[in-house]
Amino acid sequence: MSSIPLVEQKFFLRWLNYMLYPEYRIVALEDLRDGFLLCKLCEMILDLDDDEIEQDDVDASAFSLEKSSSSIPPQLSTSKGRENWARKNVKKLYTYCEKMQAVVPKNAEDNFISGKESTIVDFLAGIATALHVREMKFQGVVGEPALLQWVREVSVGLLPSGMTSFAGCWNDGIALNVVAMYPEKEADEKLISQLKQFTELERVTVGLKTLGDKGVPLVFDPPDISMGMFTPRCMRIFVGIIFCIQSKIDITILPSVKKEREREEKYRRYKEKKEDEKRKRMQQTTHSTTISTTY
User: Is 197 helix (H, G, I), strand (E, B) or coil?
Assistant: First the structure.
């Protein structure tokens, strides 16, 4: 029996499928034990170009999408070949996690490759936290405190819990609806009073639907929240995703990487402009010289 709560397994399976759509889809955490798909995820998050990715001599795309023996590359047709390839992928995965400063289990290669669910989920949580939580900024604070500060700001102090954590204060669905309705509808006492007329499950259901309509991946089912079955790290990541989408932040690329790419693109355009100006000056000089020689 798995030591990972069912709600947490479901959360990360849905989150990963959302991130990898439409190229890949997994049905169980065990599908990740070879490290291939998590490497693909990290390459997307880090926005790596083909020339920045270590080329693999194994064409594993068919194997990862199909489960038929006819699609297995020759190098992976034996258990030893499969294990060697998986170890290579996990080593690459550790390198990627270090680049994005994701907190993942150390020296866990054997547990990962053997399909230990707690290890795989810890990797998923570390990657998701690095992407959706660690670099989030709001009113001068960063990371988890920034997300909580954002919720407090959006709720204008009307939530009795004060929103000091990502634990039980989300169960009643009020905070969820407040952030879901923002910025179209700002929180006030009338809104809170209206929300309190419904049951916790009804409030959570409406909140999740509103978020889904805005493009937030539905990684929770309503009872997961209303019955308090979620874990704080899952709720932290979920609120990070909501913050990103409400703030129009790309949730598929690490913010610092996107900023660096934009800086590189800006420099590239600047360099092209300068080179174009230099080329025009040279053409004008040549033209002037030609005229002078002619006369």
Answer: coil
| 145, pLDDT greater than 80 | yes
Strand 137-138 with 141-142, pairing: antiparallel
The length of the chain in residues reads 295
- Please report, as a single letter, which amino acid is at residue 269: R
233-264 pLDDT, tens digit per residue, is: 999 999 999 999 999 999 999 888 877 766 66
Spatial separation of the C-alpha atoms in residues 204 and 37, rounded to whole Å: 32
R_g (Cα) of the chain, nearest Å? 25
Residue 184 CB-density burial (10 A; 0-12 exposed, 13-18 middle, 19+ buried): exposed
Q: Which of 53, 72, 47 is nearest to 61 (CA)?
A: 72
Mean pLDDT to the nearest integer, 271-292: 73
Question: Reduced to 3 DSSP states, what percent helix, strand and coil does the chain have, rounded to the nearest 5?
Answer: 65, 0, 35
Contact at 8 Å (CB) between 148 and 164?
Answer: yes
pLDDT at 16 > cutoff 90: yes
Domains of the chain: 6-131 (1.10.418.10), 137-246 (1.10.418.10)
Q: Is the pLDDT of residue 68 over 80?
A: no
Model confidence pLDDT, tens digit, residues 162-182: 678 898 789 999 999 999 999
Which residues does 196 contact at the CB level (< 8 Å), separation at least 6? 174
**Are the C-beta atoms of residues 73 and 59 closer than 8 Å to each other?**
yes
134: which residues sit within 8 A by CB, 6+ positions away?
101, 142, 143
Query: Rounded to an integer, what distance in angstroms lies between the CA atom of residue 253 and that of residue 249?
Result: 9
First and final C-alpha spacing in the chain: 94
Outline where 189-231 has alpha helix (H).
Answer: 189-195, 200-213, 222-226
Which residues share a beta bridge with 142? Answer: 137
